[in-house]
Give the backbone structure.
Amino acid sequence: MTGWQIVPVGGLIEVKEFFRLIANKRFPMTTWIRSKEKLDYIQEPDLFHDVFGHAPMLTNKPFCGFMEAVGKLAVKHEDSKTISGMLDRLWWFTVEFGLVKEGNEVKIFGGGILSSKNEVAHSLSNKPQRKDFNPNVVMGTPFRIDRLQDVFFVVDSFEELFSSIENLGVMEAKVK
């Protein structure tokens, strides 16, 4: 539907290789699955995370365009720790832990949320902070992988997410 392919990988792969695959519309999907005791939350991706959290989004054209563009920027700047860190945070707060408005409701699209029943309940509760999506704010926001998230960013639409990439050229100029 979107021209993306799934590529099987045995587990975590190097960040540079991950983004090289993403830049070429190839989504790395791990082949191992967590134990039922770890269904609540796990720090690394497994087959459950990839199939239920990410695979459905591979049918959304604006979202896939966003991922591909982030991948290409990551490859272009793979030797810059500053820009790589910014893009890691952008990926984390969107592809992994993103929320989207649909009408008057906030819904989940991030694979890290969708593959954790505790994170699903937490992200839709009143406990965490929810902020409007602003890529500059997102790229400056730290995150932790070892606990439920403290903050989530909410996009108005997947088209907004995709069009935000155009403004990242400004980010590149600021870093130089």
About this structure: The chain has one domain: 5-175. The mean pLDDT is 90. Residues 73 and 87 are 8 Å apart (CA to CA). The beta strands are 5-9, 26-30, 98-102, 105-108, 129-132, 151-155.
